[in-house]
Design brief:
The chain is an alpha+beta fold. Helices cover 33% and strands 17% of the residues. The chain has a seven-stranded mixed β-sheet with strand order 3-2-1-4-7-6-5, sandwiched between helices. Strand 5, helix 4 and strand 6 form a beta-alpha-beta unit. The protein is globular, with a radius of gyration of 16 Å.
Length: 187
């Protein structure tokens, strides 16, 4: 998890500590702690949470976004890892409330012919989690209005790969919009 957090920043899909990662583990999940710089994060700071949203008293506090990580893991047995980040182009599209349409055949790696944008809700709230779950129905990734993106996968390496791919698609779509309205591929 720590290596993946550092890779997010090195790959340019996240800045600072704004992103977070979870990994299914036993009857719960491991998740990044809140407000902890990735460069100094240590394994003992990673938080174990039950799928009921609890974590051990005295432990480091989990990411402020723990709720959608727990809800995704609880509702999706196919998900082994969740990557949440604020990559520039995904976030630009999300600020505009835009989904990513089928501009390129690689859109299918996210599970459908679009990458949906969940409606806005304040970070860390049950509302944001509910919106994210809806946007992820039949999908492995989504954008979060005025916020960022979520990518999931059966493993952390697959979720990280998808996060990078979604940012690539967002960058391509953004570039197309600078020229005009792009032609779309059929389903």
């Amino acid at each position: 998890i720590i290596d993946a957090c550092r890779r997010m920043n090195a790959l340019g899909i996240n800045q600072g500590t704004s992103g977070n990662i979870s990994l299914r583990h036993g009857d719960g999940l491991l998740i990044t702690p809140t407000s902890t710089p990735y460069e100094t994060m240590t394994p003992d700071q990673i938080v174990f949470m039950g799928l009921d949203g609890t974590h051990a008293a005295g432990q480091q506090r989990p990411s402020s976004e723990w709720r959608f990580h727990v809800d995704i893991m609880r509702s999706r047995n196919d998900v082994g890892a969740v990557v949440h980040a604020h990559p520039t182009y995904c976030t630009i599209l999300a600020i505009m409330g835009l989904e990513i349409p089928p501009i390129h055949y690689m859109i299918a790696v996210a599970g459908g012919d679009t990458i949906r944008c969940a409606p806005y809700a304040t970070f860390g709230t049950p509302e944001l989690s509910a919106h994210a779950l809806t946007a992820l129905e039949g999908r492995f990734a989504c954008l979060l209005d005025h916020h960022g993106m979520i990518a999931t996968g059966s493993s952390l390496s697959k979720a990280m790969w998808l996060a990078v791919e979604v940012e690539t698609l967002a960058r391509q779509y953004h570039g197309c919009l600078q020229i005009g309205t792009p032609p779309l591929l059929p389903s």
